[in-house]
């Protein structure tokens, strides 16, 4: 059965002056509607390339990316994106930054309605009272919270995140993970998250896909069979610890090393 996001047999090579650089070589990923899919893999294996294919910024050489029954061939307004370094417009307030996608996707929506939607999301992520601030007045973690609001303000079909928490310190990052789960409980969305943090992948994911080294294939798929209302403490429970060990081992295989070579 076709999944909501269905990535089948995707191959892709970049054209470089030294000839083609094969990056993806047989990628299969299926994500059900409302599911959260975390993707891990060695540095440079093609994870960001995958996000470009799903968001329609690029087309694969072979295979297909199908979203809700339709092949993705160009950028879509129904995709939300979040990156490691959120690009915020300094001349706009935080509230106005969050409203931005609505101005593009829902030009007919009245200002009051846009403001209400953005205000509601900012409150949900703990930024009530910061609506009128400028991006530079916020900490990195707060800016990332605002950028999450901006990524989902227009209720995208799919949220794609490329290492969004990578630049944050550990505790801030864990807070953001919890916020992410709270947001998801309040507003279901389908998500692909690229991360190099295995704990993040297990805490946030319904499934974790491990990509092999470049050119990347789907090497392993872990079904994260943990309760939906998890808190950070769950990562210390034996079931989660066993998953982390298993993923670590898979990453070693992906890196083409055995456990002794460090
Ligand atoms: N536009 C491009 N042109 C040529 N090579 C690229 C381009 N973008 C990425 N690459 C190369 O493709 C490989 C995979 O890149 P990327 O998808 O960014 O990996 P990851 O996100 O897993 O670190 C890397 O070797 C990178 O240098
Ligand atoms: Mg990347």
Automatic annotation (TrEMBL):
Residues 5-238 form the ABC transporter domain. Keywords: ATP-binding, Nucleotide-binding, Transport. CDD domains: ABC_NrtD_SsuB_transporters. InterPro entries: AAA+_ATPase, ABC_transporter-like_ATP-bd, ABC_transporter-like_CS, ABC_transporter_ATP-bind, P-loop_NTPase. GO terms for molecular function: ATP binding; ATP hydrolysis activity. It holds the Pfam family ABC_tran. The keyword Nuclease does not apply. Belongs to the ABC transporter superfamily. This is ABC transporter ATP-binding protein. It comes from Paenirhodobacter hankyongi.
């Amino acid at each position: 059965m076709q999944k909501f996001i269905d990535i089948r047999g995707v191959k892709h090579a970049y054209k470089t002056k030294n000839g083609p650089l094969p990056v993806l070589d047989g990628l299969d990923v299926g994500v059900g509607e409302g599911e959260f899919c975390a993707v891990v893999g060695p540095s440079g294996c093609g994870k960001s390339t995958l996000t470009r294919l799903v968001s329609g910024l690029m087309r694969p050489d072979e295979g297909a990316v199908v979203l809700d029954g339709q092949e993705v061939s160009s950028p879509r307004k129904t995709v939300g994106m979040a990156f490691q370094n959120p690009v915020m417009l300094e001349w706009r307030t935080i509230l106005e930054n969050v409203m931005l996608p609505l101005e593009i996707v829902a030009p007919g929506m009245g200002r009051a309605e846009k403001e209400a939607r953005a205000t509601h999301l900012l409150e949900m992520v703990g930024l009530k009272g910061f609506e009128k601030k400028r991006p530079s007045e916020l900490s990195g973690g707060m800016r990332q919270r605002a950028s999450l609001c901006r990524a989902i303000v227009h209720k995208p079909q799919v949220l794609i995140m490329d290492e969004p928490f990578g630049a944050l310190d550990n505790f801030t990052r864990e807070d953001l993970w919890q916020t992410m789960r709270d947001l998801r409980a309040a507003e279901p969305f389908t998500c692909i998250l690229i991360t190099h943090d295995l704990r993040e992948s297990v805490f946030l994911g319904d499934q974790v896909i491990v990509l092999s080294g470049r050119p990347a294939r789907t090497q392993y798929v872990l079904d994260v069979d943990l309760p939906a209302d998890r808190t950070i403490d769950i990562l210390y429970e034996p079931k989660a610890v066993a998953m982390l060990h298993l993923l670590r081992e898979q990453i070693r295989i992906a890196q083409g090393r055995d456990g002794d070579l460090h």
